[in-house]
Amino acid sequence: MSLLLQQDVGPAYQDLDEKSVLQRIQSLKKRLTEKLLILGHNYQQEAVIQFADQTGDSLKLARYAAATKDKEFIVFCGVHFMAETADILTSEFQKVILPDMRAGCPMAEMVSLEELAWAWESLSRVVPKGVVPITYINSAASLKAFVGDRGGSVCTSSNAHEILQWAFSKGEKVFFFPDEHLGRNTCYSLGIPFEDMLVWQRDKPLGGNSAEDVKRAKIFLWNGYCTVHQMFRPEHVKMWRKRDPDIKIIVHPECMFEVVQAADYYGSTEKIIKTVNETPRGTKWAIGTEINLVTRLQKQNPDKFITSLSPFQCLCATMYRIKPVYLLWALDNLAAGKVVNRIKVEEPTAGPARLALDRMFAISG
Ligand code: 13P
Ligand code: SF4
User: Which of 94, 189, 198, 290 has the fewest CB atoms found within 10 Å of its own CB?
Assistant: First the structure.
């Protein structure tokens, strides 16, 4: 991945005061309006997301990118895998830009193509057919292509249930990566018993499992996780319930099983937003997801009590890499006729990765 390719924007940008940065972004956005679409993931900081033409979770933004045919430049305020997905789903004349190349997703980095190919090969020796690979959208394009080539699909936090249901109807077993927790939480909701779920440790032959266990299991869960959502603990749920028995708890499905089970609701960032916004005034919420989204919900719902589930700062540091000054730098370059930080997925990866994404859209709409 090209995360280290971010060029230093220099003092001409770094020394600007925030007010003039925001004013300049606003006027560049106006100037480029015919050609420009800015997408913003729900975890983006306020100073950036205010410029997004469309906000949303991974699925909503992927759908929006796919449906946008007329904009030449798509500036993606989110993380690397989201910009790659947008590039795969858009046409050749469209250019996807990530304002800071260092905005990766640590979970997506927890599985490489080499590791996956090694795991798949050892799995295929024990189970020669009937395994359907499913990758969470938080993964590199090369993994999506691997899945596309082998009859599998991508899933997101909002359609994992439907996609896994489809996968089990298609094959006897499922290989799910890289988020162990999303996999376990979804399988549990589908009624799959724990003894049929095996954790796959990426650095061990057969994922650290015996051949007998592999033959018996229904799903293999890669042991990747989100560094932000793993910070929410069952003790936090207990603490809030003790402090206020009326409080409602909602968490993202990247949280560990015990947290999701103890919560009242769980779902994608878009579902969290909708659920909290639609409750009556006076409702109290402890939310287990990234802090920028929690803070935004607090501001948008002054008539409700809203807090983070964790007492610690659960910030996605890579999402936070997209600072207004980098957005300004990218737009300045576009206005000068120069495309910086283009995210381009080349063939032979793009075609099979698109296939895996198209399967997802065909299954979940
Ligand atoms: P959503 O698709 O729910 O927005 O999740 C993306 C993500 O990275 C959560 O950590
Ligand atoms: Fe990746 Fe977690 Fe950040 Fe989402 S919140 S982008 S899964 S590290």
Answer: 189
Is 362 inside any structural domain? no
- The answer to whether residues 194 and 304 belong to one domain is no
Cβ count within 10 A of residue 130 = 10
The string of pLDDT tens digits covering residues 78-114 is 999 999 999 999 999 999 999 999 999 999 999 999 9
* pLDDT tens digits along 197-212: 999 999 999 999 999 9
350 within some domain: no
Q: Identify the domain containing residue 292 by its residue range.
A: 229-308
CATH of the domain at 254: 3.40.50.10800
Nearest CA to ligand 2 atom 1: 105
Mutate to test the pocket of ligand 2, among 77, 79, 232, 293 (most ligand atoms within 8 A of CB): 79
Q: Which atom of ligand 2 is nearest to the CA of 289?
A: 5
Category of 127 on φ-ψ map: left (φ > 0), alpha (ψ -120 to 50) or beta: beta
Q: Which ligand is nearest to the CA of 251?
A: 1
